[in-house]
Structures are given as C-alpha cells and as structure tokens.
Amino acid sequence: MLNSLRSIVQEVNAARDLQSALDIIVSRVKKVMKTEVCSAYLLDANKRYLLMATDGLNASAVGQVSLGLDEGLVGYVAVREEPINLEQATAHPKYQYFPETGEERFSSFLGAPIIHHREVLGVLVIQQHEQRRFDEGDEAFLITMSAQLAGVIAHARATGALKNMGQQATEAKFSGVAGAPGVAIGKAVVISQAADLRAVPFRQVDDIAAELTFFQAGLVAARETISDLGEQLKSRLNTQEQALFGAYLAMLDDASLASEVTDRICEGISSAYAWSEVILEHERTFSAMNDPYLRERAADVRDLGQRVLAHLQESADQDRVYPDNTILVGEELTASMLGEVPQDKLVGMVSVQGSSNSHVAILARAMGVPTVMGAVDLPFRQVEARELVVDGYRGVLYTDPSANLRKHYEAICEEERELVKGLEALKDLPCETTDNYRVPLWVNTGLMADVVRSLERGAEGVGLYRTEIPFLLRDRFPSEEEQRAIYREQLVAFAPHTVTMRTLDVGGDKSLPYFPIDEENPFLGWRGIRVTLDHPEIFLAQVRAMLKASEGLNNMRIMLPMITSLSELESAKVLIHRAFHELLEEGYQIELPPIGVMIEVPAAVYQARELARRSDFLSVGSNDLTQYLLAVDRNNPQVADLYQAFHPAVLHALQSIVEAAHSEGSSVSICGELAGDPGAAVLLLAMGYDVLSMNATNLPKVKSAIRGISLVEAKALLEDVMRQPDAESVSRCMESVLNRPSFTRLLGPKT
Ligand code: PEP
Ligand code: MG
Questions:
Q1: What span, in angstroms and rounded, lies between the C-alpha atoms of 78 and 70?
Q2: Taking all residues of the chain, what is their mean pLDDT, rounded to a whole number?
Q3: Ligand 1: does its nearest atom lie under 6 Å from the Cβ of 466?
Q4: Mean of the pLDDT values across residues 18-43?
C-alpha cells in the first residue's frame, strides 16, 4: 500500500495542471483500491462541491454535477470533516440522486474529506456496484490518500490559476506570512539554489539558435568535467564505480536524451528548464521500475542532471540582468542570495519557505524591503519576469495585478512615503514618554548598509551586531585580520556609542556554505555558543579580532548567543580572558569589554539571576525565546499562526527576566524583533527594560509611539495585559488602549 501511495503522490506531483492531477488521482485510486468508481469533488467559487474528475461515473457529468455545502453525501462528508462509509448509500437520508452520473447502479459509498490547513477543499469518493462495506483498511487508505493529496491539490489549484495567465494574464493571489512590512510593485526575478532540478525557473527564449548552441556547449563542458573526474579517481574506484562514469558519458552522448531537450528548446523554452524537465521525467521513470537495480539508477540520472544543470546555470547567471524594480523570488531565500542583487534595484522579496522570524525576513525588515514569506502554494518556477505586487503587511502577493489593484497599491506606497517623511523629524528628539521617562533605542545591525540607516534614524547604540552576516556572505571563514577590519568599521561608525558584538551564531537556519551543518533538528542542535565552544580556534580568532578592533575606542561589549548552562558562560569567559591577556602581551592597548549573555532559551530564563551575577549584562533574544517557549519553529510557515509574540507565557518570561536582572543590579536589554513593534515596545518599557534594540526601519515608529504615551499609562496597560489568559485577549486589551490615531497610523496603512 505504501508503495502505491508513494507512486500516486509522485505522479500527481509531476502533473502539469490541476485537471490532470485529479484525473491521475481518480484513475490510480480506483485501480489500487480495486473498486468501480473513484471521483473527486472540489469546492468551486460558488461554494459548491463540483464533480471535477471521475473514473467510473459518466464522464459527461464532470463539470456539470455539483452539490451545495450541506447537500448529498458529498456535502455530508465535508460538513462532518470525517469519512462516511455506507453499505447501502441509497438508503441514507442525505443521499441525492443525479441521473447524469449514472450513479444509481452503485450501492456502496466511501467518501473522505480533502482538508488543507483546516479548510475543506473537497471530497474524494469511491463507490462499488455490489452491496459491500468497505473495510477499515480501505477507509484508512482513502484518508491517507486525501491527507497526502490535499497539499498537492492546493498547490496544483494555485498553479492552475497562474497557468491560465500564460496566454492572457489575469490577476492571481497567493497567501503567505507577513515577512517585512511595506508594499512593492515590481518584476519577479526567480533565484534558485544552484543545480536544483526542481527549482529551475521557467524562462522563455527568443533566440532559439543561440540557446541550442548554449545547450551543446553545456553538454560538452559537463562531459569534460565528468571524464576528468573519472580519470582523477581511476586509481581509487572499483570497476563498478568506474563503469558509472562510462555510463554517464554514454548518457550524455545519447542522441535521444539531447533531442528531447532540443525539441523543447525549439518551442522557445530555456535550456536549463528543458533539461530539468527531461531529467525529472527520466528520474521518475527509473524510480517507478520494479527491478531494484534499475530503480537505483534514478539517483544516477539525477546526479548527471545536476552536473549538466550546474554548467548551464553558471553561464546563464553571469549575464543575469536585474530590472530596476526587482522582486526577488525563491524557494528558500538566504542572506547570501540577497547579497547578489544590487541594493538599489531590490524593491521586494518572496520566499516559498521560511516564516516571519527566519533570518532572511529579519534582514529584509532591517533593509526596509517589503517581504512575503511562506508563500507555500506559489508555483515560483512559473513567475519569472511577471509583474508582482508584494503586500508585506498582510503577507499576500499578487501576480499580474489588474489596473485597479495596481492603483490601490500605488496609493498605499504614497501613503507610506508620507509617513516615513513625517517620522524623519523625530531623529534628534529624545525617546521619552510624555511624563519624561527616558529609554534608549538602539539598533540591530549586520549589513554595512545598516550603519548609515541607523545613524540617519538617530540610533543611540547597537544592541546586537550579528557577526555571522559577514561570515554568510563569504566562501570561507574570514581571517582574523579581515574580521578585525570589519568590526573596526562598525565600532568607528558608532563611537562613542556602545556596539554590542555577538559572537558567531550559526546553525538553525543560518548555515555557512563552507561549514555546512546537516542535522535532523537544527534549532535544537548544534547552534550558537555550542558550535564555537567546540571550535575554540574559530571563537578565539573572532574574539581576538573584536578586541583588536576596539583598541582606542573602548565602546564594545561582547555578547554570547544561545547560553543554556552556566558552564557555557564560564568556558566562553575563560577563552575571552585568554585572548585578552595574549593581546596585552602582544602589546595591544585594550580594555576588557563587558561580557553579556543572551537569554534565548527557557533554561536561561530560570537561571537569569545566576547568569546576571556572573556576567556584565543580559539581553533577551525574544525571537528564539518565543520559539523555544512555545515549541514553534520560527522558520516553519505551517505553524506561523502559533508563533505568538504576545502569548502570556512569553510576556511572563520577559517580565521575570527583568526582575531577575535588576535584583542582581544588572542591566537588561531586548534585541529580538519584538522590541521593534510599537505596541510591544510600550509594554517592554513598562516592564523596565533598560534598552530596546531593533531594526533601523522600525526605530522611528517605536520612538513616535513612546513619545505619545506616559509611563503611568504604559504601566496600567501592562498590568491589564499580564492578567489576560491568551494571546488573543492580550491583543484585544492592547487595541483598546492603543487604538488612538497616533498609534494605528504607525502600524501601517490598511491594505
Ligand atoms: C533572537 O533570537 O531574538 C535574536 C536576536 O537572535 P537571532 O534572531 O539572530 O537568532
Ligand atoms: Mg537568537
């Protein structure tokens, strides 16, 4: 059964459009379940379950027969959201007869709802002529099938919406997660991980002759690489492995493989896309074979495919042009991909994977680039060069927007520009409440561009300099001297203000291309301080570079990420002291900087007093703290709704950290994204946080919010909020107080 399930899902995944996906589903399910009818009903725009595909009922009924939300057995399955298994369907009070289906001949009925993200998309039904009760195994299989297919159907439906536009572009909407606020209108540039056969964007070409030549050159280059590799490895390979290289070369010489690709190129399709489609088809054919030896050859086909694709993409990337209003689209955007686009051309971003607290979203917010994350149903390969509207407030995007929609969003862009202009006047005003309580606003940095933006917006210090960002943008670890120069630039730019440098925090969703960490469960794995304590050579080089960079400026603090136990703090301190004394001996005139701890995991919340006693300051990383307290992966769009920054558990943890730090006479800041939310900033100020550190984009909004409220009011609000039982009531409670025009204006235009 498992094999059938897998192969059906694979076939459906490869279907060109929704209709063919459904046709495959009904015919394959009917066959595997040895029944006489399988039909798929999907909810249409008129809120009716429309017969979309059938194998067994009259084909002419497809697209004709439909049932209301609570009509017939199909509606009944959908309403109950569970399978219905009937031996004699006609006897059921909900049974409804449609002569055009020829249905009266079938007695037994088993229907399962197709549910995607809690939404019933349709119903999958099997029927049988003879009166019999489908057994438990049948029921379980149909449920499994529907559950697996729900995502595929949702995806195919979305792709279908887009495909229609090929000839005549019509607007289509895709939902995701709000990544970075703002609105962007521009042209999609699809960027993919190199040599990923499933992520090659669909591109059309005008000059077919040139593309054919380009493809042949790619084949020749790949041939050379493979034969060189075979030669180099000859002495180390056994005969069977050597034969593999021979087989690869033969495949490349195979005229039929090349001609399948050239046929598609002749239809005006780019060589990379044509090649990926042909290879994926061959891979599927091999995977479906019964013979285990042949089935394993699928991996060889894929490997060969990737090698050739790498050549085709490498040359194509060299002459990629970015339009002036580039919207970067990718399956999983990363910080290094961001670095490839000239900053002045990038207006928006869309990522199929990831969520609002993924690091690429944090960078987007810092850069003020409107972003939608987790657009899981977007057929991203098909959007190259299309016009897009990115609504980073609501987390939705539109492809090929209508003139009306465009006008609507252009007006919002204008409104935003006005708001930003209005806030610029706040730059030199202090951040204080109406009753003169002052709280410093600092910034989180990482990119060089952040420095200028931060200073322009009146930042009073750096609460978090993410040192891993320069590491992410390279193809090897930066040397001690390279690091020193980078850190010096930060320290000089902000001097005499304090710069809090965090030691390397990789792992989780931040993987260095040259130091890959491949784990089942990366956010609970080898990350932050755990990596650097295991690699003292990396840690020491970084700390030495930081200390050298601070010479003569003395405006630096060092901060340690992901501390879970006191021993980690102690070990890190030993290394920092060692580097410090070595440098003194080497003649550097440096001072020992304050050493602080990030509170990012629940264990650290419970040991906040001990950590405060043994360090110079605490800083809360609320992005990670929220994910670990609520057990919600910050990177997973599937659970984005559960990532609730205003969850009472989070708020109580935040409050208890301040109390712990202050009881030890220690200062405590917060540098997670929460500090940049105007409403949250008011609560954090009332809790007693000494410094709020945020992205430069949000700083003026937070300042404006704080300047509009008194400490007395903020404390009353906090008191009320801390009594609420859940995140929803916290939000309602906040709204009732913050619903003044001066506040709502800061939360962005209503889109
Ligand atoms: C945090 O976790 O809140 C934090 C500031 O660190 P990062 O987002 O880089 O993990
Ligand atoms: Mg963190």
A1: 8
A2: 89
A3: yes
A4: 91
The catalytic residue among 38, 359, 431, 647 is 359
- DSSP β-bridge partners for residue 185: 389
Residue 612: is its pLDDT beyond 50? yes
Is 671 noted as a catalytic residue in this protein? yes
Is the predicted pLDDT of residue 165 greater than 50, yes or no? no
Q: Dump pLDDT digits (tens) for 522-536.
A: 999 999 999 999 999
Give helix then strand counts, H and E, for the chain: 27, 22
Catalytic residue among 38, 116, 311, 671, which? 671
The response to whether residue 671 sits with its C-beta less than 6 Å from ligand 1 reads yes
- Report the pLDDT value the prediction gives residue 339, as an integer from 0 to 100: 74
- Give the DSSP H or E segment for 739: none
Q: Could you tell me the pLDDT band of residue 98, with boundaries at 50, 70 and 90?
A: confident
Residue with tokens 């399709």: 269
Q: Is pLDDT at 161 greater than 70 in this prediction?
A: no
Which residues fall within 8 angstroms of residue 442, CB to CB, at 6 or more apart? Answer: 459, 460, 461, 462, 463, 498, 500, 669, 671, 691, 692, 693, 694
Decide: 67 and 41 in contact? Cβ < 8 Å.
yes
Gap between the Cα atoms of 142 and 50, Å rounded: 19
CA 306 to CA 248: how far, in whole Å? 12
Regarding the beta carbon of 510 and ligand 1, being less than 6 Å apart is answered no
The segment with the largest mean pLDDT, out of 47-51, 158-162, 351-355, 666-670, is 666-670
> How many CB atoms neighbour CB 195 within 10 A?
19
Mutation choice for ligand 1 from 466, 601, 628, 698, CB with most ligand atoms inside 8 A: 466
Q: Which of 564, 623, 670 to mutate to test the pocket of ligand 1 (most atoms within 8 A of CB)?
A: 623
487-502 burial string, b = 16+ CB within 10 Å, else e?
bbebbebbeebbbbbb
Query: What pLDDT was estimated at residue 233?
Result: 66
Q: Are 43 and 121 in contact (CB under 8 A)?
A: yes
Q: How far is the CA of 345 from the centre of ligand 2 (A)?
A: 29
- Which atom of ligand 1 approaches the CA of 359 most closely? 8
Ligand 1 centre to CA of 115 (Å) is 34
Beta-sheet pairing, 346-351 with 84-86: unpaired
DSSP 202: P
Tell whether ligand 1 has an atom less than 6 A from the beta carbon of residue 370: no
Confidence of residue 599 (pLDDT cuts 50, 70, 90): very high
> pLDDT tens digits for 442-455?
999 998 778 888 99
Which residue of 447, 469, 505 sits with most ligand 1 atoms within 8 Å of its CB, as the best mutation to test the pocket? 505
Distance CA(468)–CA(470), nearest Å, equals 6
Contact 656, 405 (CB under 8 A): no
SS3 502: strand
Q: Per this entry, what is the length of the chain? A: 751
Q: Is 621 in the pocket of ligand 1 (CB under 6 A)?
A: yes
- Residue at token pair 């030495």: 544
DSSP string, 236-274: GS-HHHHHHHHHHHHHHH-HHHHHHHHHHHHTTB-HHHH
Q: What per-residue confidence (pLDDT) applies to 718?
A: 97
User: Does 431 qualify as catalytic in the annotation?
Assistant: no
